[in-house]
Design a protein that fits this description.
Layout (H helix, E strand, L loop, with lengths): L5 H8 L21 E5 L3 H13 L4 E4 L2 H10 L2 E6 L8 H10 L5 E6 L4 H9 L4 E4 L4 H41 L3 E6 L4 E4 L2 H5 L4 H4 L13 H4 L16 E7 L2 E13 L21 E8 L1 H15 L9 H18 L2 E10 L1 H8 L1 H16 L7 E6 L2 E9 L2 H14 L4 E3 L2 E3 L2 E9 L6 H17 L5 E3 L4 H18 L5 E10 L4 E13 L3 E3 L5 H6 L3 H21 L6 E5 L2 H5 L3 H11 L7 E6 H5 L3 H12 L3 E7 L6 H6 L4 E4 L1 H6 L4 H16 L3 E4 L5 H9 L4 E2 L8 E2 H9 L1 H5 L5
Parallel strand pairs: 1-2, 1-3, 3-4, 4-5, 16-17, 19-21, 21-22, 22-23, 23-24, 24-25, 25-26
Antiparallel strand pairs: 6-7, 6-10, 8-9, 9-10, 11-13, 11-16, 12-13, 14-15, 18-19, 18-26, 18-27, 19-20
Helix pairs in contact: 3-4, 12-13, 15-16, 18-20, 20-22
The structure holds ligand C2E and magnesium ion (2 copies).
The site of one magnesium ion has 4 residues, from loops.
Length: 743
Amino acid sequence: MPEKTNEQMNNELNITCTNTSGNTNASNRTDAVEKILIVDDEKLHQYSLMELMKQNNCDVECVSSGDEAIEIIQNNNIGIVLLDLNMDGINGEDVMRFISKNDINTTIIVVSGETSFEAAENALKHGAYDYIRKPYSIDNLLNSVNNATKKRQLEADNHKMHAQLRESEKLHRYIVNKSPDIVYILNEEGRFTFINKRIETLLGYKVREVIGKHYTELVHDDDIEKAQFKFNERRTGNRASINIELKLKCKNNDHPRNFDNRILPIEINSVGVYSSHETEDNKKFIGTYGIARDITDRIEAEEIIRFQAYHDMLTRLPNRTLLNDRLSQALTHARRNKTNLSVMFLDLDRFKMINDTLGHIVGDHLLQAVAMRLRHCLREGDTLARLGGDEFTLLLPEVNSKQDAKLVAKKIIKSLTMPFKIDSHELFVSTSIGISHYPEDGESIESLIKHADIAMYSVKGNGKNNYQFYDNKMINAYSNHLSLENDLRRALDDDQFEVYYQPQINIETREIFAMEALIRWNHPDRGMINPGEFIALAEETRLIKQIGNWIFQNTCAELKRWREMGLDDIRIAVNVSAIQLEQYDFVEFVLDVLSKNDIPGEFLEIEITENTLMHDTDDGILKLRELSANGIKIAIDDFGTGYSSLNYLKRLPIDTLKIDQSFVRDMSKSDEDSSIIKAIIAMAKGLNLNIISEGVETEEQLEQLRTWRCKNMQGFLFGRPMPCIDAVDMLKDHAQIKMHIVE
Ligand code: C2E
Ligand code: MG
Ligand code: MG
């Protein structure tokens, strides 16, 4: 055999025994460099093999016995073993047995002097890769080593590929299972062959429960038809179903969640769904791949947006849009069936004041509480809407007559009489209600709402806390109201106000003991305007502060003149609204005016209405106490029309209760009113308060009140509110009044 050069041998060997990339080994010790181990007890053989391998750049190690071989094989990364069989002690076969028993990934090439067939057969049986007889041909040996190395490399690559596949499968499974969407595969019958774990959290089914089920078992009954050919989509590409909304059934849950189903056919996904011999044209449908996304949040958000478009978010009542919609439907119905309907416009009295004094948060809470109470006054089918601010509109689509609407209005007014507990406040609100009735008061949405609004304004102008039906005559007053505000601003500067005085009489002594100051407005175009028409506006615009101050200054200056004339036992009663009382320097101001006019405190009485006080805070009580401490008298005006707790009255420094004129007016007709008056008188006696009846117009009323032991009275019977000059005349001539008193 001709000798080969090292270079030739290298080319032939064509292997890299020293594996620099480090990944071609199949064993777990893959990254270490693989060595060739030469095991031969004959030194000469050992040496020549070693030289041969070294010339081929192999990392070689040599041992002379089986023991040493086992030792090295166990602890080193040996790729190929060139193994002699006949050795003393542990021989080649033992070494092979050891390798196979311990499942060591080493390739054995036996290089032996044994020439028998059995020996070769035996060696191969024990796991040898090749059997080369000594004396070996270099070519043979190098070929064998070369082939073994290639085989090992292939095995290593294969192993690595499998490991990578396993990893990537694990990763995909992880991604699929962790997906926020349900991922599923159906077979050609529409049964689940795969579903990810998301089904467990979203629908409550275990994966194993779903596998094998037909998809229709998961689809909500409402949507079965819609789901057909969407859930088990057969089409591909652009024609496949996308973003179809369906409802699926949750396990043990009656509320279906909404799903956005994107069902893709298997063609799109390379998940091994075609047999390799099948062509695109000849494909066989074997199932559906789909992704279902939970869109509950989106559906909820859409519902909120829809709700917001038709509701007032503070009270959750319908808004103007929804009201108009319902009103339009109700009108169509009423026209067709020739029935009636009513529209009410409600505006809370003095809400603005509460909002301004106690803040928007309290105001908002109050509106919510009011809305709740109003809701309880309604029947099914009625629509209560909030149009903004403190304005509510009520549609009564089924009323037989105005009488029905009247009952509802009364119910609403009554429902608001009890105080509201808002945060730490006890608040009193009332409402003014205007009512328009279809068909008399309008046939369109606009005219019905507008006329109810006008009627509401009329209530405001007539003392609030009441209801009124629309009347054509109100239009004038309404348009007047609109221009009144501008005029009111000018009235003070232009000196258009005047104070009228009305006497308060003690019928036992027949004396006028006080004069109530009542404001009048000499409007340049409209003539004399009564306070009922502008006080509310003055309060809303807060002009009442300046107007009120003007009244104090004016009446006190007047009283000073009276006192200088010798009329020095007359008291003056001045009406004060809540907004005036709010002024931080109110007490100082009043005391200052009194002292400038040399008037002792007891000659001034302040009249406040019940509700003014009730809504007010401790601050108001403190101010009244301070005024009282300075001798000033406090009277509760229009007593009996509001809501007073006795406890509350006890906390106030009250001197007088003024029985509201409505009771006096109706006492002859109504037992209820008589009882109220008697009860108020009894209560006043019990609390040691003065009592005065307002609005006494007839002798009959006078007599009746006298028998109930009410000695102080005020009313047209004794004198209407009159200009100052007339009041002075009256005071000067008591006899004139005494003539009216029947003993
Ligand atoms: P009020 O304080 O209860 O005043 C009594 C009202 O009843 C007065 O109406 C008076 O003219 C009227 N009146 C008196 N006797 C009779 C009678 O026998 N029969 C009838 N039917 N009515 C009678 P007026 O002057 O129109 O005042 C209405 C309300 O306006 C007052 O009710 C008071 O609350 C308010 N007001 C009047 N002047 C002022 C003021 O200067 N400041 C404030 N804040 N409010 C005022
Ligand atoms: Mg009064
Ligand atoms: Mg009164």
